[in-house]
User: What shape does this take?
Amino acid sequence: MSEQRSYLDQLKDSYAHTGSLVCMGLDPIVEFLPVQSDSVRADLNTFYRTIFKEMNLLGVYPGAFKPNIGYYSALDRPLEEDFTGSLALADLLEMLQNFFPGIPVIMDSKRGDIARSSQNYAVEAFDSWNADAITVSPYMGTDSVSPFMVAEKGIYVLNRTSNPGGKDLQNLQVDGEDLYLKVADVIIEWSRQHAGVGAVVGATSPAELEAVAKRYADSGAQIPLLIPGVGSQGGSASEVVSRLKSSGYDLALARINSSSGITHPWKGNPIPEDWEDVVVGNLRTLNEEIEKALV
Assistant: This one.
C-alpha cells in the first residue's frame, strides 16, 4: 500500500470503493492453467494479467486478494538456482499494485515460530513481499504472534479453520468450552494491543462461525475475519453473511475467501476458450450472492 493507513481502515476503504466482501484467493494450479508454454513464470504472468485486465475493463473487483505462498515456493528449485515460483509471486504482487491500488493483499503463509524466527517471518511477509496482512498460527502463544504486530499491518490468527481435521484440536474442551472459543478470547486481548489483529474462521461450520463472530462483536473489539471454505469446500457465502448479520458483527471487516472456485473452476474438465470471462464471471457471481444476502 502506498499510503500509511491502519489495516482496519484499508479494509473499510476497500469495501467502500469496491462494494465487495470477497477475498480472491490466488493459488495457481499449474496443470490447469489455460496458457501452457515452456515457462511457468510466463504462463502465470499471462494468466493473471489477462484476468486483471478483464476485471478492470468490466469493473468487477474483490475486497482483498490472498496468494498462498506455498503454491509459489513449491515451484522453486533453489538447489538448481531456479526461483520460478518466487519470481512469479513477485510479478503477481507488482501487478496487484498496478491494477488494484488500495485493495489489501493478504499473504497466506500460516507462519508461527518464536522470538527471532517469528520476526524473520514478519520481515519476509511485510518487508520482502510488502503484504498488507499475513495468516499466523497461535499455537505457541504471545511470543510467537507479537513479532507480527507491525504498524499498519494485519494479522489473521487461525481460530476455527475450515478443514475437516480442524476439530481434532480446535473443538477440544477446555474448562467446559471449546478451545477455539478460548483462542477467540486471546485474539480479543491481542487486538487490544495491536489494531489489525484478526481471525481465520471457516465457512464450513456456520454455527461456530456465528459463535465466534458474536463473541467478537460483543467484545467491542474490531477484529477482521478471513473466512475460507466457500465454494469447493462446501461453504455458503449467503449463509456466512446471514450468520454474521445475526451476530452483530461489522461486515465491512469480513472477507469471504474463494480460491480455485473463482480461478480454476474447470479443474479436470476441458478449459473453456473464454476462460478469462469465466473467471471474472465467477467473481461477479460471488459478489452478487453476497450483496443479495446483505439486503
